[in-house]
Design goal:
Elements lengths: L6 H13 L3 H5 L2 E8 L5 E2 L2 H13 L6 E11 L4 E11 L12 E12 L2 E11 L6 E5 L2 E5 L8
Parallel strand pairs: 1-6
Antiparallel strand pairs: 1-2, 3-4, 4-5, 5-6, 7-8
Length: 154
């Protein structure tokens, strides 16, 4: 499986593995004890769990999906560590009733370290972008994106 030679390679290889539905290749980018937090706060604590979770998603509701990196930004935190921000576009997610859902934009953050084998992801966090919103609010079991800047007419 390809090993990232640069921090920028992480986003490209993640997308290639996702688009190939190859959860093993995707998980191989991560350290054995890596952490991954997805868009709804599910938190996986090792490579095996990251692989298992992605194998499930890529074979069910993401089975027709594709992701593409829109922007990749690397912030160096020493000569052998980097933070990689990637803005994704996801298409082809399948809804609960089998319908094709609208496209999503997300930002994923990878924290990576250079090892003898190449760059390895220590942690990742994925966050959906909700245009025009500032935060989320929970009422009962409903999560709603809010923008406090918009005021109702009096």
């Amino acid at each position: 499986m390809p090993v990232p030679e640069t921090p920028e390679d992480i986003a490209r290889l993640f997308a290639e593995a996702w688009n190939a539905r190859d959860a093993r290749a995707l998980a191989s980018l991560f350290a054995e004890d890596a952490d991954f937090v997805n868009v709804v706060g599910l938190w996986w604590h090792n490579r095996d769990d990251i692989e298992r979770a992605h194998a499930y998603g890529l074979s069910t509701f993401f089975r027709a999906s594709m992701i593409s990196a829109r922007r990749v930004k690397v912030r160096w935190i020493g000569g052998d560590a980097a933070i990689v921000h990637t803005r994704w576009k996801l298409t082809g997610q399948i809804g609960k009733d089998g319908e094709m859902l609208d496209d999503r934009i997300a930002i994923m953050v990878f924290v990576a370290k250079l090892s003898d084998e190449g760059w390895t992801v220590l942690a990742a966090h994925n966050t959906d972008v909700v245009p025009g919103m500032e935060t989320n609010a929970v009422t009962g079991e409903t999560l709603t994106a809010l923008d406090y800047r918009k005021r109702k007419a009096e």
